[in-house]
Amino acid sequence: xxxxxxxxxxxxxxxxxxxxxPVRFHAQHQVDAVDLRGPGGLxxxxxVGAVLMVGFRGELTPAILDDWRQHQYGGLLVVNxxxxxxxxxxxxxxxxxxxxxxxxxxxxEGGTVCLALASIPCExxxxxxxxxxxxxxxxxxxxxxxxxxxxxxxxxxxxxxxxGGNPFMSERSYGGDPAQVSADVTAAIEGVHAAGLLSAAKHxxxxxxxxxxxxxxxxxxxxxxxxxxxxDWPPFRAATAAGADFMMVxxxxxxxxxxxxxxxxxxxxMKAVREQIGFRGVIISDDMQMGGLTSQVATPEGTVRFVVxxxxxxxxxxxxxxxxxxxxxxKAAVDEGRLPRARLDEAVSHLMALRV
Length: 356
Fold this sequence. Notes:
Order of helices and strands: HHEHEHEHEHEHHEHEHHEHH
């Protein structure tokens, strides 16, 4: 009889060993625990590069590789427009010259938004997933293929509630009912995480009622704050509770939140992400080269304003000359005192706290 407890312990340990290890994601990012300037930390120049997620067109050339070696960008964005062959191969090459973690990302929502690679399935889009179980299944399937291709981040799910107006976002949205969208977004995040990737809820403060496409112009959202709170923000709160790693801020004109500047440059919008939504992960921009923003401000200046406002990482999707100029603009803004070093440290801390 004295042997029984030991036998029971052995049985319990064997049962636990047979279970798959849990995916290491969590809803509350412990950002304060990251020491940027201690042993193994980042230099100032490396911090500047870390907040940039960039992409380039065509082949990985020696000039582009040298640029990455010099500037130590924190993220790589792969999109169809750039026509990059063999992303898995050049992700490996870029990691070889990176002195800190490099996050490789793409948008794999399903439906009309998929990376055109034969090895990565393009599953049913958000409108046709048939509930949370479908949302989770298709996102897991696509994200597993991304993981096999060396990606770290699926910039999904789409958390915008479609208002029934402008059709631009209709196929990408899970629907017009905030509760339904919240359930599907939660399931989609679980699907991304089940594949071992980082997730991103987009596009705060809500693109579903915008009157245009922010790739081309700065769209307007004319609702009051009460409507945004009730209709547009529940899925972002659900995404936060589900442990979304990034929250993407859109380029929109929302006078109810900030009558003076686009949402992606607004301290009031960043404050809403932190305080009204309760999100503690990485605030990432939509592409800063989109016409909706460049019609208002040049990309390097817009990037500085995004980080000053409280954003953590910017996407600049296409042109080395643009993100090289942005790198210089961030350094100059810190030197001039426009961008406090503590704010840059905070942004990088949020990135370093991501668990991959």
